[in-house]
## 1
Amino acid sequence: MNKIEHIGIAVKDLENSNSLFASLFGKKHYKIEAVESENVLTSFFKCGPNKIELLQATTEDSPIAKFIEKKGEGIHHIAFAVDDIESEIERLTNEGFRMIHEKPKKGADNKLIAFLHPKSTNGVLIELCQDIQH
């Protein structure tokens, strides 16, 4: 794993949260993107060299809706940049970590993504992110 790619924050209302975080960071979000496979609408902010991803559920049965129902708004996941997501999934599986996604899939912000199950990472949802090469 190379670095923290972004921190994901689950929010109930993306528009209100965009205003809140724009005030906090002193600048607007740089991108809003729907990820239909996850039933989520995302918004990205840059804060120095770091990125923050806000996530709003688009359906009542999406993972973000379930997270907010159970835990409320707040930090949802920490994403790490990797060079080769498939080999990283294999390495982590061999180390005994449990994957939610055995194969990478397309995520927001031009990334291939896969999540580790939080039951194998002390309750922290970890996302692997690899840039999609064009």
Note: The chain has a mean pLDDT of 95.
## 2
Amino acid sequence: MVRDGSYEFFGPGDGPAQERSVRAKFWRTAKKAARQIPFMEDVVAAYYCALDKETPVKVKAILFGALAYFVLPIDAIPDFVAGIGFTDDIAVLTAAITAVSSHITPAHRQAARDAIAEHD
């Protein structure tokens, strides 16, 4: 979200809906994927980065796009397919996290560690 409250990414009016969708479904999907995604701490840190008001809008757009792909049930490979269901999610998340890694701070990583410990 831009400081003036508007969303410049997604489409007109899509930013708040996309963020709400990611927030609502993130932990449920993360719990299901935890055993299949070896870098879950990075995914959770990216989630906290996307929610951080100090994160630039373009970075938020990349992260919310990747996180929305992760949490939404419509996928190139359905997540329920044993053994390969999260492979497309892994590719999208890896690309997004790599692209914005300089914006994922030690505070985001600590929040991720704390949240993972709390959700175990």
Note: The two ends are 30 Å apart (CA to CA).
## 3
Amino acid sequence: MKSLRNLILPAILLLSACTGLPEGIDPVSGLEKERYLGTWYEIARLDHSFEEGLSRVTAEYSLTDDGTIKVVNRGYDAQKEEWSEAVGKAKFAGDDSIGHLEVSFFGPFYSSYVIFELDQPGYQFAYVSGYNRDYLWFLSRTPEVSERQLEAFRERAREEGFDLDELIIVDQSPLPE
């Protein structure tokens, strides 16, 4: 029985770490959940296997009957010439006016979604991190942003300690007909 306990405790600690906050990064407060819903375009990201090779990436957030948020991430895989889609759910880690959510695409396993910058007057852009600095996204309500907006994102991300050497600017151009 002792060996099972030795496996369970590290697993619990590992899974709970995936829903924490990156050290020194605070989620936004004053979030209005209903205003955050809708479509967001991925402008930039630190790449991961689940998004590798995808362009034209969007995230669609909608409220469900049980109060959770349905998440539909969609991107185009040019190599396969097909769309890839992942459907998950999100719930607030605590108070729903704080930009810290837990998102799951795989059953009971959740990971942090931390909104650490948000254009709160207009809800036109957001900077999002995961539970650590290996995850970073720049989301916008429009598929294109100005160079000034992109530089402001880079500057804030550097200030927060993100390594931008592997930053990808996502191709949001329309597919050829």
Note: The chain has one domain: 2-169.
